[in-house]
Each structure stands twice: as C-alpha cells, then as structure tokens.
Amino acid sequence: MTVDQSARRTTVTTTGGTGSQRQYLVLGVVVLLLALLPLVLPEERQGVAVRTLIFAILAVSWNVMSGYGGMFSFGHAAFFGIGAYVDAYLLVDHGISPWVAMVVGAAAAALFGVATAYASLRYKLAGAYFALATFAFAQMLLLLVSNLSSLRGTEGYNVPILSESSWSKIQFPQGDSRYYWIPLGLLAIAVAVKIALVNSRAGQFVVAARDDATAAEALGIPVMRYRLLAVAISSAIAAVAGVYYVQYYLFVGPDNAFGGSVSIEAIVPAVIGGVGTIWGPLVGAAIVGPLSELTSTLLRNPPAALAFLEGKAGLDVITYAVLLIAIVIFLPRGVYGSLKARFGR
Amino acid sequence: MSSRRKTLAVLAVAGLALAGCSSSGGTSNSTSGSGSGGASGETITVGSIHPLTGALAGAGQLMQDATEMAAADINAAGGIKGLSGAQLKIASGDSQGKAETGQSEAQRLTQSGAVALVGTYQSDVTKNVASVAERSQVPLVIDVAVDDSILAQGYKYSFRIQPNATGMGTSGADDLAGIGEQGGSPIKTVSYIHIQGAFGDSVFTAFKKEAEAKGITIAKEVAYDSGSLNDAATQVAQAAAPKPDAIVVTGYYPDSLLIAKSIAALKPDVKAVYGIANGGFDDDSFPGAAGAAGNGLLSANYHYDATSARVKDIRTRFEAKYGKPMETAAMLSYQAVEVVAAGLDKSGSKDPKKLRDAISALELSDPLLAFDGPIKFDETGQNTNATVIVMQIQGGKVEQVYPQKFKTVDLKFPAKPGAS
C-alpha cells in the first residue's frame, strides 16, 4: 500500500548528501539533549520515559517498512516478540548476554519478516490484505508460543534478578540512569540507520517501489528485492526493541510479546507524528508515550474545575482516539509532517 | 482525504478499538484521603495496584475500594498502635491489566514512598510487580494471583495469602474424596475438564497426583482453549463418555458457564459436578446466570468465611458503601491491607526491610477467609494455612457446605447436575 502523497514529496526533498549530514547533526543534538533528561526527571517517572523510548524505537521500525516501504504492517508484534523471546530464551535458559540476543534476535526477526513478506507479496497481497496477513502472522506466533512448553507456554519467562549491576546482562539497580541511556542509544542507532537508508540509492529504490511499483519495475528496479530489504531492516530494529523490553521489565509472556496491543503501539506514534518522515515517529512517541501518564495524573488529582473526572476510566484511550481522528482530519501528514509541509521549504 | 489515507485512518482507529478492548488505557485511580489528618499526624502510605481499567476493571475497582475501606477501618480503630497511632493511606496504581504498566506503577509507588504494596489480581502482572518489590526491597502482599511460579523465584519480599494453584488442586482432591465418603457414595473415577495454560495445567497436575494417592482414577482429561470455546458440548460429551463418578472443571467464568449449561443439556449420569479453583461456580452472580443449570454444582475454592461475624459486618458495610457485593477477591485485598498493618504494628517501624521481616514472622488469627488456621507465611512467602473449602449452589445461592466447621447449609450429595 502506498502510504501517502505528501510523504513522497518530503522524502524526495530531504534526499541528498548535505541533507543527510544535516539530519545526522539534528539527531546528534536531539540525542544529547534527551540524554540530559534523567538529570531533571524525577526517578519515579523513569518508567514512563523508558516505555516511551521503547515504543519510539518500534515506531521508527514500523515507519521503515510501512512509511517508506509502503507495506502497511499490522503485525509488528511478531518481530518485537521474536526479539523478546530470543533474549528470554538465551538469557534465562542459557545465560547468554542480551547484547548477543540483540544480534541473534534481529537476524531471526529479519529472516521471519523476509519470509512472510515474500510469501505475502509473491501472492500480490496489498493494502488491507497485506496488513491483515501481517496481523495473522503475529497471531500465529502468539498461539504457537502459548502452546509450546519448551518456551514455557503461557507462563512466560522471568529474568532472574542479580544481586549486583552487570553491563553484560544489562541489569542495574532500579532507577539507574543507564536503563534510560541504553534505549536512547538504541533509538539513536535506529534513526541513524533510517537516515542512511533513506539517503542511499537502495532507499530511493524502496521509495520508488512504494510510489509506483509498476513504473519502478519498468525502469529495471528489482522491486521485490528492495521491498524485502526494507522489511528486513524494519524487523531487525523491532526485534532490538523487544530484547530491551525484556531487559527492562524482566518478564515476558506471549501477550506482552506478540499481543495485538504491541502492534498498535508501533503504529500510533508513527501515524500521529507523521508517516514516512524521519522525525515523525519520534515526535509521535513524545506525544503518545507520556499521554496515559498525564491523563492518569490528571485523574488522580484533578483540579477543582475538573473534579467530575475523578474516578473516570479510559480517558487516555478517548484522548488517543480524539487525537487520532483530529490528526487524520486536520493534520493528515501527522504533527511533524504537517508542520514541515507548512513551515519547511 | 485520499482513499488510502482513509484506509490508514480506519485501520488505526480499529486498532485503537482493539487495544481498548484488550487493555484499555486511562486511569481512574484516586488516592484516598481517608488516612490524612490522623491523631499522631504521621501518615504511612501503602501502594495498591489493580486493573482499574480494561477488561478486568470491575473486579479491580472493587479490590481497590476494599483496600481503601480496610485503611479507613484501621484508622478509625486508632491507626497503627505500634507506631503511636499512625494513619494508613492508600496510594493507588492502575495496572490496566498490563504487566509493563503494573511494573511502572509499582516503581512509581515505591519510589514515591509506599512502604508496602498490595495487589494485583493477575498472575503475569503480579510477577512483574514482585520483581519490582524485590529490587526496591519493599514488601508485596499478594491478594489474588494463583500461579505457583510467582513465589518460585526465591523472592524474599513477596507474600501470598491465598492458596497457590498446586495447593488448590491438592486440597480439591482431598475434599472431593472426603465428600464422597461423607455421603456414603465414594468417588472412584473422575473426568477433568480444564482450561489450557499455566493455571489449568498446574491445578490439574496437582489434583491428579493427590487423587491417585486417594484411589481416584482419572478417566479422561479434556483440555480446552478458552479463546475457541463457543460451545462446550464436545468437551462435556468427551468427559462423560467413560461414565465417571464426577466431572471436575477448572476454568474462568464464561467457560464455566458454558460447561455448566452443556452438562445440564446432556445430563451425564454423574454423582457430582465439581469445580476446583473455578472462576465461575462460586461467584455470587453465577446461580442467576446459569439458572437451573447451576443447581447442585459443587466448587472447591478459597472463599470468604461466610460463618464469621466479622466478615458479615465488613460485607454489609462494603455493600452499603459501594453498592456492590464484596466478592472473595475484594475480601483478600482487605485482608492484604490488614497483613501490612499487622506487620507495621509488630515492627514498630516504617522501614520496608523491617516491615518485611515482621510480615514473614507474622501469625494473624481470625482470617477473613475460610482457612485451616492463622495466616502465616513459609520461607517462600506462601500462607501455609491457605486452604480451600467446598461450596454448593442451592436454592439459587452459593452456600458453604464442606468441611463441617465452615458450612452454612447441609451438603446435598449425590447432586445430579441440573436437578433442582
């Protein structure tokens, strides 16, 4: 599915050598600023910040496949879950470091992504049909893992708690800033990979395949190959997010690895921020991530004017939905995408 | 708006709706003001984590209410005596039914000064919260969460009041054998229908071991996947085929309702239909939902002690205040706050480490649940006296029937399913 017309223009204009240099520079500055956050953030808010970073990585990943590649994924949980389970299995059952799991998990997810995407594209599934196929693959893994006793079925894995800090096992005292800096670093790498891809020749082919597969094919671009490349990169990044998820939460079961809500968490920030842009998923994650925390704080201690909200449930889902609808209607390119179109060149 | 853009929007909104169904966001929690302004001026915060939004919000909210009521009762009775009348305050967290949200809520509560946590109703959320408790060295008193593996991690800071899955399977088998003998019609063979997964599998395994030791054979084991159970006729027919003396059922509320209805329709020739750790059979709304199909169903489960005057008083006041009957889950939440309070009283300190030691050495008599003895934790944190009792639906009500000391009415046995 070709995602949107505006994204096509944006990518084309941001392409080129000087463009990528500027993007790396912006990335560096943004990451540096974000790295200072633990110094000002109250410790009990760390959980929200880390969750936001994990889902930002996932949204960046989704954007590579669906925003740039034009293949709408409704099942990113599959890749995320593969990463999570590879990590849990290697660490808990074999004592292997999560850093290794990141590599193995990324490779396994990429392989799975390429195989399933090839099967889907080979039979010309497009648009909603492709999206449903990805959803089905994620569901399939969910059922498989729930029933495999060798992967502990519905029990899931608990990561053993160590008595001291360990870089190799990525385990630190609770509230340690390293828990925040590591996913920030991973996010920076994911964005850097995306910048490199978008500005490369291969990236141009990916975009061309998205915009008009037939024309690209006619020009001699091996469309399938470049689509699978985008899928592979996207799945690998999602798997890394999954590995870190397990390391931070110290537990993984079928639902929090392969459940439908994981796929949603990959899509929503990207759509809100701006599909098919470099910075959109980050902007989206920064908006969506703290949203449920903000609404719950509001509900916990509402100001006098909003006292009627106290004890009401589901405000953040309503806010989510309203935000999504408003953005689709008024900012069809997402928050970042629309701002860029308005104030950009 | 292009049509593609519309597809995207529709998919995204549909996805949100899905997410809303499965987990729902938002938070409806409110910190209670009930403890503030105590006599001594000191306020001690206890964190309470339950699913206040999402599919389990109904039960979660009742449990949250019960913790508030427990704190208010303790404060009204003079607060924590060992701490010169300090008042308890409940700070609530919403797990949204999701493990990672439960964990970040636990972090938020412990880091903002909660001396103990209570919760959480779901086994996977509890596992995560237990790991937070362990790492921040703040005691967690589990009100509801059955999975054995939560306490199998060797954690020092987690305590569980209710029986675990293995305990329920074992006591369930004991009681079934006891009922057969008491009724003069011993149970020799059973068929067992259970939900797939950690919960059903572990209860069944423990039951089988104990039942076989008591000379009961398992004629047939039928495991079902709750997601695909739209009609239980197949499962019931399979279970009835070897003509067992009893059919045993372990599963959640909706499945148990389907199974009860199928049994009533197929009328297998058994002496009893017997739930163990069954999420439906002893729920107060079950007799109404099942109608005639519910009559005579037996259920071995942990349960509030309906013979206790203290329990009656708490339930009456709870229903008056919140407008809903206080189910066993909420009673356990109330009890969990009492455990924390007793620990604070005994340790005479707000230090979570000392509180932990006090709780582990606690012996709390007059428990609110029908247990074998006082609440007392072993080295894994499991309440050693947590046992199940047997209930039976009679005259459209869930009554306690076995063992003798907890009975509210006489056991009817044999109890043909569906007969009035």
Automatic annotation (TrEMBL), chain A:
Pfam families attached to this UniProt entry: BPD_transp_2
Compartments, record wording: Cell membrane
Keywords: Cell membrane, Membrane, Transmembrane, Transmembrane helix
TM spans (from-to): 24-41, 48-65, 71-92, 99-121, 127-145, 179-197, 226-246, 317-336
Cross-referenced CDD domains: TM_PBP1_LivM_like
Transferase keyword on record: no
UniProt xrefs under InterPro entries: ABC_transp_permease (IPR001851), LivM-like (IPR043428)
Highest taxon above the source species: Bacteria
Membrane-topology annotation of the record: Multi-pass membrane protein
Major site of localization recorded for this protein: membrane
Keyword Transmembrane attributed: yes
Name of the protein described by the UniProt record: Branched-chain amino acid ABC transporter permease
Automatic annotation (TrEMBL), chain B:
Positions of the UniProt region annotated as Disordered: 21-42
Keyword Transmembrane helix applies: no
Domain of life: Bacteria
Descriptive protein name: ABC transporter substrate-binding protein
Signal peptide span: 1-19
Keyword Transmembrane helix applies: no
InterPro entries noted in UniProt: BCAA_transport, Leu-bd, Leu_Ile_Val-bd, Peripla_BP_I
Protein family (similarity comment): Belongs to the leucine-binding protein family.
UniProt cross-references to Gene3D superfamilies, sorted A to Z: 3.40.50.2300
The Leucine-binding protein domain, residue ranges: 43-397
UniProt keywords, alphabetically: Amino-acid transport, Signal, Transport
